[in-house]
Amino acid sequence: MEHEKEIQEIKERLKNVESQLKHKSKFSGFFKIGLIGIIIFVLFLIVVGSYQFISGG
């Protein structure tokens, strides 16, 4: 009986860890997409600013 309870507790812990990892991977995916979007936006602003600087000079 003692071992069965321990096995059940370990299974529950494993399920909790798996769900936390899934949640973390979803969050990191959104974070990566947001970070890439910000980098692309900044690069776009740099290109536009460089074009205006060159054409204005």
Radius of gyration: 25 Å
SS-derived structural category: mainly alpha
- Secondary-structure element pattern, one letter each: H
**Strand residue content:** under 5%
- Major sheet characteristics: none
- Nearest-integer average pLDDT: 90
Described by the principal axes of the CA atoms, the overall outline is: rod-shaped
Protein model, in words:
This protein has one helix at 2-56. The mean pLDDT is 90. The chain starts with a helix and ends with a helix. It is mainly α and 57 residues long.
Features:
single chain, 57 residues, mainly alpha, transmembrane
Quick synopsis:
The protein has one helix at residues 2-56. With 57 residues, it is mostly helical.
What are the SSEs and their pairings?
Blueprint: H1 2-56
